[in-house]
Amino acid sequence: MFSVINLGLRFVLEIILLFSLGYWGFHAGQDVWLSIILGLGLPLLTAVIWGMIISPKASIKLPIGGVLLIEAVLFAAGVLALIDSGFRVSAYLFGVAALVNRCIVIRWKMQP
């Protein structure tokens, strides 16, 4: 039961990651087209990278160290996007939740 809750939390954290990058992208661009490109492109690029490298059915199999590095970079980008958007407390809570969640996934061997 606990593993289902933790994997559900992991999914919610992934959605928050995509949302934070999209929100930042839509508000970071100086003109409308750049905002649209960043707002849609960053979450799309992140989802593609996640699907190809981090997801359980990833097409590119890296050692766990590589997966953790890429995942850390993506979540750090999400935290920085939230901070830059003015959501400091949310960014810190998101970062801590992602870190704790990942530690539980590793400790309980929830990822192949």
Description:
The chain crosses the membrane at residues 7-26, 32-55, 62-83, 89-108. By secondary structure, the protein is mainly alpha-helical. It has one domain (2-107). It is 81% helix and 0% strand. It contains four helices and no strands. The chain has helices at residues 2-28, 32-54, 64-84, 88-107. α1 runs antiparallel to α2 and α3 (64-84) runs antiparallel to α4. The mean pLDDT is 92.
List the keywords.
mainly alpha; 4 helices
Short account of what is shown:
This protein is mostly helical and 112 residues long. The chain has 4 helices and no strands. It has helices at 2-28, 32-54, 64-84, 88-107.
Draw up the topology in text.
Layout: H1 2-28, H2 32-54, H3 64-84, H4 88-107
Can you summarize the main beta sheet?
none
Number of domains: 1
Shape call: globular
What is the CA-CA span between the terminal residues? 18 Å
- Secondary-structure-based class equals mainly alpha
Count of DSSP E strands? 0
> Number of helix segments?
4
The topology string of helices and strands comes to: HHHH
Overall pLDDT score: 92
The radius of gyration over CA amounts to 15 Å
> Approximately what portion of the residues adopt beta-strand conformation?
under 5%
Q: Portion of residues in helices?
A: over 70%
- Parts with pLDDT < 50 across at least 5 consecutive residues: none
Pfam family, one: DUF2568
Keywords: Membrane, Transmembrane, Transmembrane helix
Protein name: DUF2568 domain-containing protein
